[in-house]
Write a structure and sequence with these properties.
This protein is 78% helix and 0% strand. With 221 residues, the protein is mainly alpha-helical. It has a single domain, classed as MetI-like fold (Orthogonal Bundle).
Length: 221
C-alpha cells in the first residue's frame, strides 16, 4: 500500500509541475490574445471536463500504442511507446487535468485587467519582466487554485489511468485502482478504509484551497 501511495503522490506532483509550466503561458495567451482561434483552443482544453474519461483514455491509448502517432513522433528521440508506463500516466494526467489548472489561471489573468501591465510598460519594463514581476504575482490566487485542483484531480483520477496504465503494481497501480482491486476481491473493509481516506483528502484540499485563496486575495488588496 505504501508503494501505491508514493506512486500516486509522485504522479500527481510531476503532473502538476508540468501543468503549471505548460499551462501558465497557455492561460496567459487565452486571457490576453486577440486571436479569434483562442476560444477554439480553450474548448479543446476544456474537453476533459465533459468528455468521459474512458473515451479520452481510449484515444490516448491509441496515440501511445506502438503504431500510434505520438509513438511515431517520439521514436526519433529514442522514446519507447508510453502505454502502460509511468511516463504514459503523466501524459494522460496532464491532458486530463489541464482544464482544472488552465481555467483558474486564465480567470486570474483576466481579473487583473490591463491596467497593471500598462503601468509597467510606461515604466519601460520589458514585457517578460512585467509578466514575472506584475502579472504572475497578481494571478497568484488563481495559480495556487490551479495547482491544488490539478494535484487533487490527478490523485483521484480513474478512467484515464485504467485505459492507458492498466494496473501494474509498482509501475501504474495508483490509489483509485487499489479501491477497484479491493471491491473486485470483496475486501469491503479495505475498500471502505481507502475510500474514506481519499474522501478526507478531497475535503481537506477544497477547504485549504478556499482559505488560502481568500488570504492571498486579502494580501493583494
Amino acid at each position: 500500500m505504501i508503494d501505491t501511495i508514493l506512486l500516486t503522490v509522485q504522479l500527481a506532483t510531476v503532473s502538476t509541475l508540468v501543468l503549471l509550466v505548460a499551462g501558465t503561458p497557455l492561460a496567459w495567451w487565452l486571457a490576453k490574445s486577440p486571436n479569434r482561434l483562442k476560444e477554439g483552443v480553450a474548448t479543446v482544453v476544456a474537453l476533459p471536463m465533459v468528455l468521459p474519461p474512458t473515451v479520452l483514455g481510449f484515444y490516448l491509448l491509441v496515440a501511445m500504442s506502438p503504431q500510434g502517432p505520438l509513438t511515431a513522433a517520439l521514436a526519433p528521440l529514442g522514446i519507447a511507446p508510453l502505454a502502460f508506463t509511468f511516463p504514459g500516466l503523466v501524459v494522460g494526467s496532464v491532458v486530463y487535468s489541464m482544464p482544472f489548472v488552465v481555467n483558474p489561471i486564465r480567470n486570474a489573468f483576466e481579473a487583473a485587467g490591463e491596467r497593471p501591465m500598462e503601468v509597467a510598460a510606461t515604466l519601460r519594463a520589458h514585457p517578460l519582466d512585467a509578466f514575472f514581476t506584475v502579472a504572475l504575482p497578481l494571478a497568484s490566487p488563481g495559480i495556487l487554485t490551479g495547482a491544488i485542483l490539478g494535484f487533487a484531480h490527478t490523485i483521484g483520477e480513474f478512467g484515464v489511468v485504467l485505459m492507458i496504465g492498466g494496473n501494474i503494481p509498482g509501475q501504474t497501480k495508483v490509489l483509485s485502482m487499489s479501491i477497484l482491486d479491493y471491491v473486485e476481491t470483496l475486501q469491503w473493509a479495505e475498500a471502505h478504509r481507502l475510500s474514506t481516506l481519499m474522501l478526507a483528502f478531497a475535503f481537506s484540499v477544497i477547504l485549504a484551497m478556499t482559505l488560502i485563496e481568500k488570504r492571498l486575495r486579502r494580501r493583494l488588496r
